[in-house]
Amino acid sequence: MRLTVPAVLIAFAITSTAASWSAQAQSITVYKTPGCGCCTKWADHLSENGFVVTVRSLDDLSSIKSSLAVPRVLRSCHTAEIDGYVVEGHVPANDIRRLLQQRPDAAGLAVPGMPLGSPGMEHGARKDPYDVFLFGDGEQTIYASH
């Protein structure tokens, strides 16, 4: 098979994009309380989607959430840090991946509460609609809707 220069360039671009995702900081640190099963399921969701997950169990997460400036209205049961961003709650892996690719000027993403059907909160076929918020500098905007 003979490849033309444009075909080689396209193949290189595709390979480079995949390699850059692999080379990016995929390590994520998840802070959760010891007995939280849905937090463990969310960490599993991230692992299944290519992230290297470190779980830190703490009895109280309020100081972590405060130090990372997670607004009270956006708080959930677990908090994570990845490549300079905060991820609060049951944010889908694809939304985190998009955040890391787009690199917006923000503190991070959050899914407030614990919506059924979000990653880690699966409950049969039931899926409640929920929003993922981009937050920072006292502002919050909808980043994705599921």
How does this structure look, described?
With 146 residues, the chain is of the alpha/beta class. Helix content is 32%, strand content 26%. It is built from 4 helices and 7 strands. A 7-stranded mixed beta sheet has the order 2-1-3-4-5-6-7, with helices on one face. The radius of gyration is 17 Å and the shape is globular. It starts with a helix and ends with a strand.
**Strands, count:** 7
Strand content: 25-35%
Helix share bin: 25-40%
Q: How many helical stretches?
A: 4
Q: What is the distance, rounded to the nearest whole angstrom, between the alpha carbons of the first and last residues? A: 44 Å
Strand arrangement across the biggest beta sheet:
2-1-3-4-5-6-7
| Series of H and E elements | HEHEHEEHEEE
Q: Structural class, judged by helices and strands?
A: alpha/beta
Briefly characterize the structure.
The chain has 146 residues and is α/β, with parallel strands linked by helices. It is 32% helix and 26% strand.
Task: Compile the SSE list and pairings.
Layout: H1 5-23, E1 27-32, H2 37-48, E2 52-57, H3 62-67, E3 79-82, E4 85-89, H4 93-102, E5 108-111, E6 131-136, E7 139-145
Parallel strand pairs: 1-2, 4-5
Antiparallel strand pairs: 1-3, 3-4, 5-6, 6-7
